[in-house]
Structures
1.
Amino acid sequence: MQVTVKIKRFNPETDEAPHWETYHVPADPMDRVLDLLNYIKWHIDGTLTYRRSCAHGVCGSDAMRINGENKLACSVLVKDLGPEITIEPLPVLPVIKDLVVDMTSFFRKYEAVKPWLINDDPPPERERLQSPRDHALIEEATKCILCGACTQSCPSTWADPDYLGPAALLKAYRFVFDSRDQGTEERLRIVDSNQGLWKCYTIFNCVEACPKEIDVTRWISALKRRAVTARY
Amino acid sequence: MAIFEHEVVVVGAGGAGLMAARYASEGADVAVLSKLHPLRSHTGAAQGGICAALGNEEEDHWIWHAFDTVKGSDYLGDQDAIVIMCQDAPRTIIELEHDGVPFSRTPDGKIAQRPFGGHTRNFGEAPVRRACYAADRTGHVILHTLYEQCLKRKVRFYNEFQVLDLLINPDGEVAGVVAYEIRTGEIHTFRARAVVLATGGYGRVYKTTSNAHANTGDGFAIALRAGIPLEDMEFVQFHPTGMYRLGILITEGARGEGGVLRNRLGERFMERYAPTVKDLAPRDVISRCIYQEIREGRGIDGKDYVYLDLTHLSLKQIETKLPEIATFSKIYLGIDPSREPIPVAPTCHYAMGGIPTDPDGRVYRAVRLLEGRDGNYQDEQGRWVTPRFELEYVPGLYAAGEVACVSVHGANRLGTNSLLDLVVFGRRVGKAIVQQLEREGRRLPALPDDPERRARQTLEAILSRSEGESVAQVRADLQQMMMDNVSVFRTAETLQQARQAIAEIRNRAERVRIDDHGRQFNTDLMEAWELLSLVDVAESIIHSAEARTESRGAHSREDYPKRDDARWLKHTLFYRYPDGSVELRYRPVTILPAEQYPFFQPKERKY
Ligand SMILES: Cc1cc2nc3c(=O)[nH]c(=O)nc-3n(C[C@H](O)[C@H](O)[C@H](O)COP(=O)(O)OP(=O)(O)OC[C@H]3O[C@@H](n4cnc5c(N)ncnc54)[C@H](O)[C@@H]3O)c2cc1C
Ligand code: SF4
Ligand code: FES
């Protein structure tokens, strides 16, 4: 089949503003959008610029807006999109070139929640024990590949670019609910704020967007409850 | 443009680079340069597990693990390094757990373990549960945890900096690296006392691969251009279960959980080839068996693939132990593996060969043979011995991870031994660097003259060309050529064809044209540069494979079907000189004394 791919392009060295370009690409229904981008780059226009690496949804490089939704280009297939495909960079973040956005602010929010295990006890000889039940509490959250699809789909982020956003809050959840972690207090101080947990109005865009099918809102809600109980 | 200074520069932010950085940062100022954001590294794609004889699920011992690794390597692995790795494995995994890796758990809260190909109890008796895992995203959780630990320790990251050259000064010491800042298009010099190459694999040399687009073998090529040889490049692992046509990996953990391979007749054919361990035979063996089935007309519909059958596993088992691959099958093949078998074929997966190092990750550029022999020999009692030799090191240079060849994997790597290799030897490199700095001081070595010259000239040449073939065309031809001639089965004829073809492809690769002549985020330019890495790697594989007239591990010569220890129990060292000529030298395998380690003596490899 033949598909029409419309891409929002921007070259910082020559363009004042982004513009749309249209490409006609031969495709198989089972092709990934990433295959289409590669086809364009390799056979039509080598200047098309985007990030990619693993090509099967595990590295988080290629989150972008595809037919109006934030998706990984390597995890959505032509058959699910139809013959007209529109591709734009992730919203809100500054565009560097074409589909490449500056993720600095996204990763700064991630770093803000102290994304590392905090436990100052001298480590035991063997592993710290963790029951399968405790492990199950955090397992889904550990699937996050930090692609940014969720945070950049959230109306709260659009309204306030400094809102921590679902990915960072999910990371905070992952550590607060890790039975081995002792950093709950310091993390709650960070997320229990106006630009943190309480800017989440459970709109569920993040859950829709997440390519790893993480129930982000559910875990953020659990973190909210934890923050409230910690206050009393 | 700018000159940056750090005591230690680590190139690559996968498991190996981050592990080295984490431990080096305990006593040094460390910078990590990576062409990808660290969390995009291909370590994150590792699915099945990381092994250690923890004995959490059943009795296990490091010596059993070492035996399996020696045998799995088809006796080409260096036994001193293998012993270190297997002894170090349990405490290194425990340290990872303490760092926060969310491993799957046993009912009593310990790290869970499962069986994996080639890992056995009691010297080959039956499969053993040795692979620690986090469902089927083990690499992902390790990568994230190591990055978290490096952030916590304030390691300095230069993300999207592509290293183009390694700097060695006229005294032969490492002086730093040259890097291209992708965002700005500027070339920078990084001075350092110690440099670690941890740039991962080269799977993109082949058309069908489980490897990421970024796995273009840059580190191999950079080392080669700096006069460092590449060891054992003929040994390329094809994983038996890549998704048909796509190459995306289905972890061996799927067979660890009970999955089986079937041919057109529905027969579980591995029972015929490996009666003891069956579908859990090592990868080289299974990949050959699959091609054998296909050649004899028992591929599915007579085509070039077979089935991986998980339909007899419980839905719960698939959902909890193999969720990612169930999702991949659904997305990319439209198949629900609990109901239908998955079409699979071998896919290029892993580089056993690489930059030669000792067990502390120190890179050497040459070997001095003290007994005049470059291979092992048998004494009067028929025991294999290692003739004495000395290594000539490159001061300050280290390598770790898939780009390095320690060599613990020899001619064939066992599943879950790579993640282990990354963390064990990455850690040792980090610690060795701290010791080096304490011993030798922190003075930064002098830079060679005009350090950025080669990098600048190479890029300018690409940018200035207005005519030529596209990168994609030349790359596709290279990948197809390697697939046709240098994959699972090889002969003198295919290798000779490949040798001629690569010379021509190199010519074309050096003359490609790109569309993007801008400075900022020019991935077109980087792809053109990476093509040159692919060519260097391919050439080293071809020459090393053509010379080795035997079959061992993943190197299977149809014209020399037997292993030939008398002539070939030795490591290959491939050199490429500035005039384009190449040379092969050899080095004995380190075999431990037979009195102490009788199980490690080479014998026929049966499963
Ligand atoms: C799909 C898949 C599944 C696997 N599953 C398992 C498993 O279950 N168990 C197991 O033990 N092994 C497994 N392996 C093998 C193992 O994952 C890899 O061998 C290992 O992760 C490689 O790690 P690394 O740190 O050496 O390199 P990588 O993780 O590939 O990292 C390379 C780094 O180098 C950087 N880099 C590369 N070139 C340059 C350059 N020119 N300049 C700057 N930076 C550069 C990259 O940005 C990246 O950060 C699997 C491999 C694959 C492909
Ligand atoms: S929660 Fe999902 S969408 Fe958000 S960053 Fe993680 S993987 Fe991406
Ligand atoms: S390329 Fe890795 S997630 Fe898409």
2.
Amino acid sequence: MVRNINKIEISHTELGHHHGHDVGERLYLHRHSIVHSLPPHVKIVAAFMFLFVVISTSITQWQLFIFYFSLILLTLTVAKIPIKLAATRSLIEIPFVLFAVLMPFFGTGEQFSIGPVDLYRAGLLAGLSIVGKGTIGVLIAIILSTSTTAREILRGLEKLKLPQLMVQIASFMLRYVNVVTDEMERMRVARASRGFEATGIKHWKILATAAAALFIRSYERGERVHLAMLSRGYDGVLPHEEVTKVSVKIWIKALTLPFLALLAHLLMIVWK
Amino acid sequence: MLEPSLKIEELAFAYPDGNQALFGVNLVINKGERVALLGPNGAGKTTLVMHLNGIHETTHGKIFVSGQLVDAQDKEGLKKIRSQVGIVFQDPDDQLFMPTVGEDVAFGPYNMGLRGAELEKVVTKALALVGMSEYKDRPPHHLSFGQRRRVAVATVLAMKPEILVLDEPSSNLDPASRRELADILRSLDVTVVMVTHDMPYAYELCERAVILSQGIIVADDKTKNVLTNEKLLKDNRLELPVGFSIN
Amino acid sequence: MHIPDGFIDLPTSGIFAAASAAGIALSLKGAKKSLDEKSAPLAGLTATFIFAVQMLNFPVAAGTSGHLLGGALAAVLVGPYAATLALSVVLLMQSFLFADGGLSALGLNIFNMAFIGVWVGYGFFLLIRKLLPKTKSSITIAASIAGLLSVPAAATGFVLQYAIGGTATFSVQTVLAAMVGTHVLIGIGEAIITGLAVGAVMASRSDLVYGWRGNSSLLEIRKSI
Ligand SMILES: Nc1ncnc2c1ncn2[C@@H]1O[C@H](COP(=O)(O)OP(=O)(O)OP(=O)(O)O)[C@@H](O)[C@H]1O
Ligand SMILES: [Mg+2]
């Protein structure tokens, strides 16, 4: 994938990217709120349901989108997540926004003009739809990951029947991502301290060698971790949390949001 | 006559990449002994340690733990041996793989069948022993290296092993932690095998020392005798720290 | 190429989610066989590696840079089953934690990158390895070509999904031309990096490379005291 690196990064690093460093902990924003206190699997289900309602809404029903956005804003407020934080983190969808922005200018069918530019109606609508739905999707994921630790999200997914091996893989990933990115960072510092700076394709060999070294280290770490697990009696299953039942009340609380969205959607259909 | 805690017969081993690390190790350690395993970098100490509870399969030679053969095919026997031989790894990051300190310490006892309050008690006790009680709910990667080392020791102590094997336990510990760890080790009634580059520590804790060099045992004697044999030390790239002398 | 929410319609997303779930189930089976009980920590660290290596920026020109997708690389290094699982987990975490790729588009993304990317890459790797002599450099070349083809293949997956349930107004032909065109270019980068990386692993730890099995020699016994 080609991407633009921003100005700060250009100056001195070939590392660094939207993936933060302390995965899980840094994304998570510790607050006390209803949103934070809901069990993770309940939150995930609610998020998906809300998303489904949004995605199945036609963009021509723009009033509904205003309503959806207000619901999201409300949730952000209740969860005490600063709007600015949510906005910065949603920059991730920029490539697709660019794609959508082009759409009204190319296409077929009905045209209309705003001042000197001619726009295609279908393209404009589709572009708006992609940006609108995409943004809501991004915001939902942001609310989820800011109000829930990575570990909790994983626990939620486990409860929603993500296969055990996948849960374990993800769990190891969360545990070791900092160790591995630290290793990568140390290798970068070691390169930089010997005057190396990657500026073009001619430096790929060195970077690829670094990637290879990273793989070897990661794989060997995997082996050693496995040995450490074996030596403490591991036989394929990780210890399990006792399953706690979630009360109907909590489900109702969590599902208010998608329910409101759905209600509005249905009302709109009836009303039309 | 009591079976020795550990008996190793002509143990040889090569890593999958063809690199041979052990070339026929013979060693007997009796119950209750504390033995220092010395040797230069790359001598094969860690490799030897990994064999002691069957996590590296013995491809050549034999190992007996309290008289029982370590056999990779015998899953039940292996399980028992792994509860008897506790290994504290060289790199605590390899050992601490669970999300929180508490869960990590619980991992071993859980696999041994402990549950509920009993499990809780063992975890609390092990963490208290290494002075890490208040870190129970923290993720391991938020701890300092020395703290991770202590938790790593706790994860093994929680399994109440009969043979405790430590791979360079004193490296990166501050002086007070180093002394506290020594106190813990002395207070335990177990057989100890300690890999170390820390000669004063070996002298302080272990009455017996063996030197592993290029994959074989080249010396096996009282720690005092080993550490005062200048030629032996020199031949094996070992040195006493400046100002340290044994009289 | 991480598809966001609302870009492909719901029914299509649903179909591909089901396909992805089935593929993951098959890979779980396959991984159990080829990796036995080691699978969890090894696949976990492979996922960590892929996640980290995708953060490694390869400068192209004028402030742009690219990064590795890693499907073919992972397949050659740890085998296609473990690679599929590792990439799926990476995509799962990216969408849940970083909003990178829509939650409802997870099935679409896993299908393109964790299946097509990995299996097309691995397929070509096997094919080319067969055609070349049995040497270490053949592995590197085969891995490189696998990397090259895996990227436009994954992009074709996207075009397929777009053709079935795309919500944008560009014609499928336009999207096909644009996606495959740019991804052939990206594939060239992927090829170079995959080749170099596999070559470097082959040089120091060829025994770790799934696509290459070395042979072990006899043990030597030395005289001790
Ligand atoms: N996973 C591995 N694959 C291949 N070779 C290895 C592996 N681990 C260690 N070796 C090699 O085996 C030999 C013995 O290594 P080992 O780690 O046992 O040494 P050590 O005595 O513990 O050294 P140190 O004091 O540095 O910890 C070394 O030559 C080392 O390079
Ligand atoms: Mg060692």
